[in-house]
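Researcher: Next sequence.
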Amino acid sequence: MKIKSLYICVNDMERAINFYTSFFEKSPIKNDSIYSVFDVDGFRFDLHIKK
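Model: Next structure:
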């Protein structure tokens, strides 16, 4: 079995997007204030705002 995605909750979406954009050296493929997605060579890395 292969893991194809990871979802994490964040307190500050803008800060998380800035961090992971730098870390992965890729921009998110979807980006809004509640939910953002990075495609990292076929692996889906999702950020969700924690409320």
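Model: The beta strands are 5-10, 30-31, 35-40, 43-49. The chain has a mean pLDDT of 95.
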